Structure formats: structure tokens, C-alpha cells
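Run log // design_07
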């Protein structure tokens, strides 16, 4: 089972305030624990929404609408993520609880969401096979 720990943005992260060295050290230690346990798939921080673009589809079949950031409501933004693969929801919660306060200063908030597996989204064996071939190709491209 894959889970994404979504780190919510704060007014500081949206203002471009970088984490302290102490927080970077704590996050690196946490990520090292995830790696040693064999559960870490990816982990990254995101730039503030000031350089972001939001694309929406206001009309079915219509043209997409592009809006440049920055965006308001920092609590609705994402400042980073950690993607893990674990055996259960409970294990994912345990790992999320071990993450240091992602912003420090008591402002951190993490949303834990399960990632859909191909078989949960698709029933057609041909579609599943195409998706699995695509994912294999992505892995091969990264390793090349």
C-alpha cells in the first residue's frame, strides 16, 4: 500500500522562508529511517505558490483556464510530500506521527492519503497491462 504524507503550507513557506538547519537535520534523519526501513519512495519540498500555475477546467469539453500564482489560503496549499510504501494504514500513520514538525514553530500539518493502485482504478485487463507497461518504461528510463 502506498501513502502520501502531504505537508501543508504555512504563511512562512508561502513567503519563501526556508527551513532552519535544525529542521533540515531532523528531516534528513527521518528520511534516513524511512530508507533503512525500505519504505521511502520519494520525498520533496515544493516552492511557494508565487511561481505556481493553476490549471482548471471550468466547462466540460472546454478550454483549460490558466491562473498564475501566488494563491491565497496557505492552509489549502502543499509545501511538500513524502511517498511511502507500507503494509497497512496503521503503519503509514505510525510513520506520519514520527515525522518532525515539517515547518517548526508548531505550524506543521500533515495530511495522510492512500494512493490508488492500478487495480483499484481499472477493471479492464488491457488497460491494466498498458498502465503496468508504462510504469515499467518509466522505471527503465530513470535507470538508463
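design_07 sequence
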Amino acid at each position: 500500500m502506498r501513502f502520501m504524507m502531504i505537508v501543508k503550507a504555512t504563511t512562512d513557506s508561502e513567503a519563501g522562508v526556508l527551513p532552519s538547519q535544525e529542521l533540515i537535520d531532523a528531516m534528513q534523519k527521518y528520511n534516513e529511517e524511512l530508507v533503512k526501513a525500505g519504505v521511502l519512495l520519494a520525498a520533496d519540498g515544493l516552492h511557494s505558490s508565487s511561481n505556481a500555475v493553476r490549471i482548471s477546467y471550468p466547462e466540460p469539453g472546454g478550454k483549460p483556464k490558466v491562473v498564475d500564482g501566488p494563491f491565497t489560503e496557505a492552509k489549502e496549499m502543499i509545501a511538500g510530500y513524502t511517498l511511502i510504501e507500507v503494509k497497512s494504514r496503521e503503519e503509514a500513520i505510525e510513520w506520519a506521527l514520527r515525522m518532525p514538525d515539517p515547518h517548526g514553530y508548531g505550524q506543521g500539518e500533515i495530511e495522510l492519503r492512500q494512493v490508488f493502485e492500478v487495480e483499484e482504478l481499472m477493471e479492464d485487463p488491457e488497460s491494466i497491462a498498458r498502465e503496468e507497461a508504462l510504469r515499467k518504461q518509466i522505471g527503465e528510463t530513470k535507470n538508463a
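The radius of gyration is 18 Å.
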